[in-house]
Amino acid sequence: MTSTETRADRFVSELAVLKIPDPAAARAGLWLRLGVALMALGLVLVVSAYFISHNTGDQLVQNDALTLGLTGVAASVVGSALFLRYSLTGFLRFWMARQSYDLTLLADRLLERDIRHDLTGTDAAPR
Questions:
Q1: Domain coordinates in residue numbering, the chain
Q2: pLDDT at site 127
Q3: What is the pTM (predicted TM-score) of this model?
């Protein structure tokens, strides 16, 4: 470890050393893309239903457009939930690894301080 290496660089290098593969990474990416596609499809359905319902006077066609619009809203809500869930997964996984690293670093510092304090032998270390 060099003196110019930042704490973030050390963290990234230690994560690379762990070599923990994520077996569900491809599946999570698929669900993330599916969520984006559902949001876009829902928006297209809602806009097309609006134009269909306003360009006709037939109530049966307007009811079909209403059903199409509600389907679009449902697709957008489901797509948003999928997108939110799988986009936050990556962030929270990194955050949890970061917390684990910081707690390990803190424990090492406290242990080192206790060892140095015990070696001086002036007073008992508080426990």
A1: 24-119
A2: 55
A3: 0.61
